[in-house]
Specification:
The chain is built from 2 helices and 8 strands. It is mainly beta and about 170 residues long.
Length: about 170
């Protein structure tokens, strides 16, 4: 489950084709990012395909970016940088794993809090943006138009708060 959820979380395509697996830039710049206090904390998440739980912990890194730790199973946790952006009223996290290879792609996750204790994450399919993947304004524009298309934004993880924080993130 750990590796499967991790791959889902980062939106990596397992196909052997030349399809793109991520975006070359975040949806927004780090200096324009924001922290939504309701997201902070630890979440137990399950994927739509597998009910085995993994933990995602979101922390405020610098007031504009998130540090995310993803753990599950017996493997070592993985660590991510994420920048929050809005398109219209919809929140997105642009996430990239923290490791030495700074050329890794970004994954875009739409997030929605149904209440203080429930978080839904949906993955943006990078292959649907192959022709504009290097042009963040064009990606944003197309994404705004196709937010409801299930081939563009797909259900990924359903999460429940694990740390007892209230709706103010305390």
């Amino acid at each position: 489950m750990y590796w499967r959820a991790r791959l889902l979380f980062m939106g990596v395509s397992l196909a052997l084709s030349a399809c793109i697996t991520g975006f070359t830039h975040p949806l927004g710049e780090a200096e324009d990012g924001f922290i939504e206090s309701n997201l902070l904390g630890t979440w137990a998440c399950t994927s739509v395909d597998d009910p085995t739980s993994s933990l995602i912990t979101l922390m405020d890194f610098d007031g504009r970016q998130y540090y995310i730790q993803f753990s599950g199973g017996s493997k070592a946790p993985s660590h991510y940088r994420a920048i929050a952006t809005r398109i219209d009223d919809v929140g997105f996290l642009s996430a990239r794993e923290l490791k030495l290879n700074l050329e890794d792609d970004w994954s875009y996750l739409e997030y929605a809090l149904s209440d203080a204790s429930h978080l839904e994450l949906r993955l943006v399919a990078a292959e649907r943006f192959e022709d504009v993947v290097d042009d963040p304004p064009s990606v944003r524009q197309r994404l705004a138009v196709q937010l409801q298309d299930p081939e563009v934004v797909t259900d990924l993880l359903s999460c429940a708060r694990q740390d007892g924080k209230d709706s103010n993130g305390r």
